[in-house]
Design a protein that fits this description.
56% helix, 3-stranded antiparallel β-sheet, mainly alpha, Cytochrome p450-Terp, domain 2, binds carboxymethyl coenzyme *A, 16 helices, 2 domains
Length: 389
């Protein structure tokens, strides 16, 4: 019997609807742990603060794919593989050159990642022995896609990836056409570490749901990019920057407190605040806050940090809501010269490590993901011919 037809399913057995699957535990995972009350985040055993202080993004990728840190040889090998996988097949470069220059960067990234499957030697075959290689290929190519599209839309030549250097270093090089300084590389690397993994968020759930049908990893990541793009998820960082730029237009003495209160009075959501799991300060926001303060001072954008703090205090006083990861990351990216509509693509560049880690984990203990919906429509209606409706 097809869906939509009454199947005799007893709704009384399922009387509760958890809107937004709030509080539903659907999987066990070793990828990350969030204590929403304490404001604690752990990736495969390590506190985010420990990783932020000591790790590189490449080490975090290995951690999320293998549930342990790499030894020196394994890390070198992973770095080499990531470097070797950076280049894009010509048809994808042709697509990037040909597409609308006004296209949304996240939409271009979604299409290009989907195309990558056609050029993968494994054709995205569903085989656990191939998964890590596929994860490396996707993770290595995403930064090249983002930088290439940004160059093309600004009428600049695409910069080929370097055969050396970290993911962060190479990305900034491809984006700007010049090698970044140590501070910019470090900032970028830290942002990648902080965004890599975060439990059963909407995009990770999407990746697992697609993976659970035994569809290929490219499909799972393409779907996840679509989910991350939305303003209630990863798209919030661009929305935060647009808010700050709206204030900038009002001049240096813009009143961020009045601005925030007005938005709240008209029942608008303030982007970069609130979280389904954290009921306190998001630990990633705390780390990004320090970076945003230092960088905005160094680059002469102090007003952005001041307005951010005015908004933060107003949200705390008026709604008792704290900032999430997207709030201060906006100022950090702005300070290192990245255009606002690229912010969510950078989130993707990092989160792909978590998505692929979850895809691998799902495959190791798979069951099709198939919840139910409580039917609240009418039943057994009489058929009315089209001319009589
Ligand atoms: N601004 C104003 N009010 C808010 C906000 C906000 N940012 N977030 C939550 N609230 C209020 C909301 O209006 C509601 O109030 P009331 O009960 O009076 O109607 C209450 O808090 C609960 O909100 P909700 O939307 O039902 O909560 P949720 O758990 O479904 O949503 C959220 C979580 C992240 C979607 C939401 O906080 C939000 O829309 N925030 C703004 C967008 C954002 O910053 N998203 C990034 C999330 S973190 C990074 C990521 O996952 O990508």
């Amino acid at each position: 019997m097809s869906e939509g037809i009454h199947t005799g399913f007893d709704e009384q057995q399922y009387p509760h609807i958890n809107r937004g699957l709030d509080g539903i535990v659907a999987f066990s995972t070793t990828k990350s742990f969030i204590d929403g009350q304490k404001g604690e985040l752990i990736y495969s055993g390590y506190l985010i603060d420990t990783l932020a202080e000591n790790a590189t993004f490449e080490e975090v990728c290995f951690l999320l794919w293998n549930d342990r840190l790499p030894n020196a040889k394994e890390l070198e090998s992973l770095k080499t593989l990531l470097i070797e996988n950076r280049e894009l097949p010509q048809p994808i470069l042709d697509y990037i050159n040909a597409t609308d220059k006004d296209a949304e960067p996240m939409a271009v990234l979604r299409t290009a990642v989907s195309m990558l499957a056609d050029f993968d030697d494994t054709k995205g075959k569903y085989d656990p022995t191939l998964f890590e290689g596929q994860a490396i290929a996707i993770t290595a190519k995403i930064p090249t896609i983002i930088a290439a599209f940004d160059r093309v839309r600004h009428g600049k030549d695409i910069v080929a990836p370097l055969k050396e250097g970290s993911t962060a270093y190479n990305f900034l090089y491809m984006l700007n056409g010049e090698k970044p300084g140590e501070q910019a590389e470090k900032t970028m690397d830290l942002c990648l570490i902080l965004h890599a993994e975060h439990g059963m968020n909407a995009s990770t759930f999407t990746a697992r749901t697609i993976g659970a049908t035994q569809s290929d990893m490219y499909s799972a990541i393409t779907g996840a990019i679509g989910a991350l793009k939305g303003p209630l998820h990863g798209g919030a960082n661009t929305a935060v920057m647009n808010t700050l730029l709206e204030l900038k237009e009002q001049g240096d003495d813009a009143d961020a407190v009045a601005f925030t209160k007005k938005k709240l009075e008209s029942k608008e959501k303030i982007m970069g605040f609130g979280h389904r799991v954290y009921k306190t300060f998001d630990p990633r926001a705390r780390l990004l806050q320090t970076m945003a303060k230092d960088l905005s001072e160094e680059t002469g954008h102090q007003e952005l940090y001041k307005w951010s703090m005015d908004m933060l205090n107003t949200m705390k006083n008026e709604k008792n809501i704290d900032p999430n990861v997207d709030f201060f990351s906006a100022t950090v990216y702005y300070s290192i010269g990245i255009q606002p509509d690229l912010y969510t693509t950078i989130f993707t560049m990092s989160r792909v490590s978590g998505w692929t880690g979850h895809y691998i984990e799902q495959a190791a203990n798979n069951r099709l993901i198939r919840p139910r919906a409580l039917y609240v429509g009418e039943k057994h209606l009489d058929w009315v011919p089209v001319e009589d409706r």
